[in-house]
Amino acid sequence: MIENERLDALLASGEYLSYAYAYPHKTAYRTLAPPVDLRALWAEEDRRALFLYVHVPFCEQRCGFCNLYTQVRPKSGVEARYVAAVERQAAVVAEALADRAGPHKTTPPGFVRLAIGGGTPTFLGAALLDRVFAAARRMGAADVPTSIEVSPGTLDDDQLAVLVANRVTRASVGVQSILPSETGAVQRGQAPADVERVVRRLAAAVAVCNVDLIYGLPGQTAATLRRSIDHVVDLGANELYLYPLYVRPLTGLGRRDGWDDHRLGLYRAGREHLLARGWTQASMRMFRAPGSVETGGAEYRCQDDGMVGLGAGARSYTRALHYASPYAVTQGAIRSGIEAWMAQSDADFAVARHGIALDPEERRRRFVLLSLLDTGLDRAAYLQRFGADVLAHLPELGEAVDAGLVEVGAGRVGLTETGLERSDVLGHWLQSAAVRAARAAWEAA
Ligand SMILES: C[S@@+](CC[C@H](N)C(=O)[O-])C[C@H]1O[C@@H](n2cnc3c(N)ncnc32)[C@H](O)[C@@H]1O
Ligand code: SF4
Q1: Per residue in 123-182, pLDDT tens?
Q2: Domains of the chain: residue spans and CATH
Q3: If you take atom 7 of ligand 1, which residue's CA is the nearest one?
Q4: Ligand nearest to the CA of residue 215, numbered in listed order
Q5: Alpha-carbon distance 57 to 311, whole Å?
Q6: Counting ligands in written order, which one lies closest to the CA of residue 211?
Q7: pTM higher than the cut 0.90
């Protein structure tokens, strides 16, 4: 039995241990033996409120901080072959999902949200991008809240027209900083004029225009972070993600000492600045402008509902199984991973070969972790779903209460202000010992 870590020791070790936006992390996935037939798997699942995610793993550049599954400037023709493979996979998966055999006979499946992410989806030209939307539509993800990631170096008139024609409701632009000295220091070539053009155009075209900014960049100060914030808000951004810079294994940056306090100071400066402007904070990283609305699709709850992923790096979730192609970080491994993914036959696309089964304890843990780090946990919803109060299932939450990170109310368990800024310690600590061990083994390999 692997012991869990102590929260007080983790809190003493630093602020930034891991970003738990999904649980379990892909590095805890392993080969599934035997492979799992998707038709049988999804037949067991309630398919009324699914999320469709399409992964586009291409970029114009490899930023020094980034460990996402993405190939830089693929050879000509690769994107077209990739989109053709996505179309083929979409048809195979749609057929598996439409099966009427299981206990949930909903057919066709109900998609309530679509996201196209990357990499950089707008690395695809307009015609290929439009084919991705068409494939999603054929699966049933039409006229639902739709989000796409865009980089400032992309987005011509034709691509923008494709986003508008496909009724994109949210666009997310990676800006990181408006200062070329700060983006240049993390090997991200970015022209301020491109930032202006792309954010302005998207702000005028879609309901939610998100901008990603990073704090903790070399040379960055509270004043320059505020300048980045003010500039993108003036351009029309009505949602912001403020990411602490993570220096990850196998990326282009080295680690620096004495840097946690610096990032924490910048987080507080950025947060205070936005709150003073009337913005609201939805989670550690996410902020919304006054009057802007959540367009994510109220019917979909990430802790609860299924995700269907298309593309080389996309994960899919049912309640009992999470699966995806094997994860990689180095360019050589990503390039060959994408080639191997495209070379799959239709029969290959009909099975899951790599993933992690979630036992009841892991399902409960996932629900708690994702709820707490998002808008808080509804105790009645937990009780209804898992048959006991959350504090009975996870008594160690008491440690987080004692540490001042979590507050327990009659109806809700949520983060305190301290808990919010220490979300990345809490997310790390809330992982099960087994998942932590699997991730550590992957990192060590
Ligand atoms: C898929 S990209 C966004 C779209 C597009 N590829 C771009 O970069 O403009 C995902 C976002 O994750 C954030 N991110 C990625 N790696 C990070 C790291 N190591 N530390 C902090 N933020 C990171 C960046 O803010 C980035 O904009
Ligand atoms: S941050 Fe965006 S553009 Fe840079 S490598 Fe990562 S996915 Fe590509």
Answers
A1: 999 999 999 999 999 999 999 999 999 999 999 999 999 999 999 999 999 999 999 999
A2: 7-19+359-444 (1.10.10.920), 27-288 (3.80.30.20)
A3: 174
A4: 1
A5: 8
A6: 1
A7: yes
